[in-house]
Amino acid sequence: MINFEWHDVKTPLFVSLWVVLIMFVQIIFHASRENNFSLPDSVLLIITGFCVGTAIDWFLPHDIYMDPDLFFLYLLPPIALEAGYFMPNRAFFRNIGTILTFAVFGTLWNIATIGLVLWLFSPFYDHSVTPIDIMLFSTLISAVDPVAVLSVFTEVKVNE
């Protein structure tokens, strides 16, 4: 009558366990702030994600893989909602010109430099890669997120 299918629930279960682990790490990190240890939350989360990813790769190498449904249904909404919720509105709108300037020119600079470096190293690749593929990859990998930059700046208490 009741049938348990592991493959139906393993992805939401693992994502939920990741979120709970990240919450515990952040709670412990914020509780231990009295020892004057200055580290942004984003660095802590990157280190935690690396450790969790490495542990999952060691113990469950083929059980979890990144597919578009996992990203768009489970990972993207918390990132976007958290960034929008904790955005300092007054400082953001006061500096909108500067933020957009750095976001646009920063993104274009990243696209050009990453594309140029990849093109310069293309003779060392095993497969031939066209310049359009290099620029497409450069465009995907070099997106600059001004919301993330602003949240890191407010976290490390940079002057508005």
List keywords for this structure.
160 residues, mainly alpha, 7 helices, 72% helix, membrane, sodium transport, Cation/H+ exchanger domain-containing protein
Can you give me a brief rundown of this structure?
This protein is mainly alpha-helical and 160 residues long. Helices cover 72% and strands 0% of the residues.
Task: Characterize the structure shown.
With 160 residues, the chain is mainly α. The protein has two domains: 1-85, no CATH class; 88-160, no CATH class. 72% of the residues lie in helices and 0% in strands. It has helices spanning 6-31, 41-59, 68-85, 89-94, 96-120, 131-141, 146-155.
Topology overview:
Blueprint: H1 6-31, H2 41-59, H3 68-85, H4 89-94, H5 96-120, H6 131-141, H7 146-155
Helix pairs in contact: 1-2, 5-6
